[in-house]
Amino acid sequence: MVSRDEIMTALAAVPGPDGRAPLPDSGALSGVTIRDGKVFVAIAIDPARAKAMEPMRAKAEAVIRAIPGVKGAIVTLTAEAARAVAGAPEAHGHQSDGPPRRHGRPSEPLPGVKHIIAVASGKGGVGKSTVACNLAVGLAKLGLAVGVLDADLFGPSMPKLFGLHSKPSVAPDGKRLIPLESFGVKVMSIGFLIEEGAPVVWRGPMVVSALNQLLREVVWGELDVLVVDMPPGTGDTQLTMAQNVPLAGAVIVSTPQDLALIDARRGIAMFNQVKIPLLGVVENMSYFVCPHCGGRTDVFSHGGARKEAQKLGVPFLGEVPLDIAIRINSDDGRPVIASMPESAQANALLEIARRVADTLAAGAPGAMPAPRIRILE
Fold first, then answer.
1. Are 262 and 233 in contact (CB under 8 A)?
2. Integer CA distances (angstroms), 233 to 75, 99, 209, 238, 343, in order
3. What is the chain's alpha carbon radius of gyration, rounded to the nearest angstrom?
4. Cβ contact 118:267 at 8 Å
5. What was the pLDDT predicted at 321?
6. pLDDT in the model for residue 352
7. What is the pLDDT of residue 120?
8. How far apart are alpha carbons 118 and 120 in whole angstroms?
9. How many H helices and E strands in the chain?
10. In the β-sheet with 247-254, what is the strand arrangement from edge to edge?
11. pLDDT tens profile 223-238
């Protein structure tokens, strides 16, 4: 198994950001992780020098991949503690207005992808990933070319939801990964690259850089929509991603209860703050219909997300029931919208997909060149 010392020895052949000191002695290494023969390295730089530092990054990645026993290497550039990096100059003698840009180069469109949409929630446990999975399959059933990026590095769900368990192959150029495909949807997730259940113990900048790589070093081909399953919450990672990915809009998922709606409001406020259009709100686990007697129970109350959407002037996309069939099929890697296409549950999810598709076709309200999720520099 490859060791940290072997990695440091290899990296000693790479000049650091100042062009002189070996990378391990430069003070620029902000993280080195080794897992199952795969090596992840983060290099902190001044974001203004990102383009100039690309050869250094590429060389570092090459020397690590050349180490016997290394199965793969991802070297990313981050902007963490940029002023402390050896050789990183101040911003040309003047201070910028507001906080510095972080985690990579200026954003740019993803070639071949028409629309990137985020599926987000203010908190975990509301079924966001299940909705994102079925939304993607629903869009594909409507005739669109669709991909999914699983942006939740700490709790990737897409491998299980799509029933995918193999590793992505490397493209002929040797630099990009070919996404896996299921139910007509191209899928990429960190879950394909690590062992199931293995923890991802990274700091914020490493997370964002890895996500950037999963986005931009993947052969997506021509897509009408790329659905990004965002991590839950509204922390630094989510905000940084929202500011650096060309999002056409966002879908907020919430349950009807007051506690979930409080967090949903935070999610809506975050996207409003970064000027990303809201495609709408989905009320998940909206109600429960007993499979035995047919009686309906509003387990988490009902209609709260619709009322909240109306109150905030955000489109309401629809209600998805709390149903054991959705749970069973999701656990089996069979999205209910594909495995039970004639069911009420599938129809509810397909209608949500149709409304999202219609909004994208018409142009999202307030649509503008906006943010992007990016990958290493």
1. no
2. 27, 21, 19, 7, 31
3. 22
4. no
5. 85
6. 95
7. 86
8. 6
9. 11, 15
10. 180-182, 185-189, 146-150, 223-229, 113-120, 247-254, 278-283, 316-319
11. 999 999 988 776 655 6
Q: Are 254 and 300 in contact (CB under 8 A)?
A: no
131: enclosing H helix or E strand: helix 128-141
Q: Rounded to an integer, what distance in angstroms lies between the CA atom of residue 27 and that of residue 17?
A: 9
The residue with tokens 């998805």 is: 320
Q: At what angle do helices 236-244 and 258-273 cross, to 10 degrees?
A: 40
To which residue do tokens 């099929």 refer?
A: 329
Contact 144, 225 (CB under 8 A): yes
pLDDT confidence of residue 240: 62
* Cβ-contact 340, 353 below 8 angstroms: no
Phi, psi at 94, each rounded to 5°: -140, 160
Which structural domains are found in the chain, ordered by start? 4-86 (3.30.300.130), 113-362 (3.40.50.300)
Model pLDDT for residues 146-168, shown as the tens digit of each residue: 999 998 877 789 999 999 988 88
Question: pLDDT at position 241, please?
Answer: 66
Of the spans 82-91, 181-190, 225-234, which averages the highest pLDDT?
181-190
In percent, how much of the chain has pLDDT > 90? 30
The full DSSP string for 191-244 is: GGTS-TT------HHHHHHHHHHHHHTB---SEEEEEEEPPSS-SHHHHHHHHH
Q: Where is 257: in which H helix or E strand?
A: none
Residue from 275, 185, 237 nearest 374 by CA: 237
